Amino acid sequence: MSKASDAFENEIVKMVNLHREECLPYDLPRWLIEEGVRPKAKIIGAEGIGSKDKNNKTDVVVYLEASEPIKISAKLMNADYFGNWYGHKRFLVEFGIDAFYRMTAASTAFANRWARTATAPYVGVSICFGRRSGNTGQNFTDIFTIEDILTVARGYGNGVSVANCMYISNTSARDIPSLIRNIEAITVQSVNKATESFKVAHRPINPITEGTNRGKNVYTKFQPYERLTSRTVIRDPKQLFRLGKFVEVEPNCLNHNHILDDLEERYNIVVPRKQK
Predict the structure, then answer these.
(1) What's the alpha-carbon Rg for the chain, to the nearest Å?
(2) Nearest to 191 by CA among 237, 151, 153
(3) What single string gives the DSSP state of each residue in the chain?
């Protein structure tokens, strides 16, 4: 998470905790009541949990007496993603194996198209979900169902990690009534509005300039046609992509570093990596 996102969440937590022992308004939105939040419930306190686990969709939880908590997915106005860097294990839990094979087919088709005009080398493509313009974005519903949008935005399963509302702003509300007015139900319509149409973001990673992102799982991999006769360092994407093509993968947590290792050990192809 960015420092700006952390600061935004901390502002919300601090504001709510200044109002401990106060009560929620009586006239809560119907959708919030349907989430189990009780009108006039006493505020126990708030906690920021967004950075405690990468799978948490709730960023700020507001604990209430004799009521379900308010579980806020907090986003800055310029935030691009509701689902960032989906790994294979998480993907399978939330969407299942059939969706995985649709995803790897889509990423492979993207990677082979992108290779025709790429200006940087890459050996795999990772994915995020949310706002994405240009040719690296693909309509979410090309691969997933409408209902899957809610899984990405709310989270999967039950418990405090699964959000029941979202708050999109650059500054925290100043009081509880203002917070209640500005949180929104998480619906397909509200998420699409926030992201200007929900997208799969294909993320080709340039090993020469990217460090930690090389550890993200990939949904397609570069497969050479044959082993080179001698160890060859390749920085030019055109030179690299003449040697093979992208192919579909299995859900085995393959990442960019694994592919780079395999290219060097089995095919004598060395794509330089950014050093720490």
Answers:
(1) 22
(2) 153
(3) --HHHHHHHHHHHHHHHTTTT-B--SS--HHHHHTTPPTTPBEEEEEE-TTT-TT---SEEEEETTSPPEEEEEE-TT--EEE-S--HHHHHHHH-HHHHHHHHHHHHHHHHHHTTT-SS--SBEEEEEE---STTEEEGGGTS-HHHHHHHHH-SSSSTTS-SEEEE-SS--SSHHHHHHH-B---HHHHHHHHTS-EEEEEE--TTT-SGGGGSB-SSEEEESS--SS-EE---HHHHHTTEEEE---SS--BHHHHHHHHHHHH-EE------
Cα–Cα distance, 141 to 149 (Å, whole number):
9
In angstroms, rounded to a whole number, what is the distance separating the alpha carbons of residues 263 and 17? 53
Determine the pLDDT at residue 83. Answer: 82
207 neighbors 117 (Cβ within 8 angstroms)? no
Phi, psi of 133 (to 5 degrees): -105, 170
Q: Give the tens place of pLDDT for each residue, 183-224.
A: 999 999 998 888 778 899 999 999 999 999 999 999 999 999
Q: How confident is the model at residue 29 (pLDDT cuts 50, 70, 90)?
A: very high
- pTM for the whole thing? 0.86
State the average pLDDT for the chain. Answer: 93
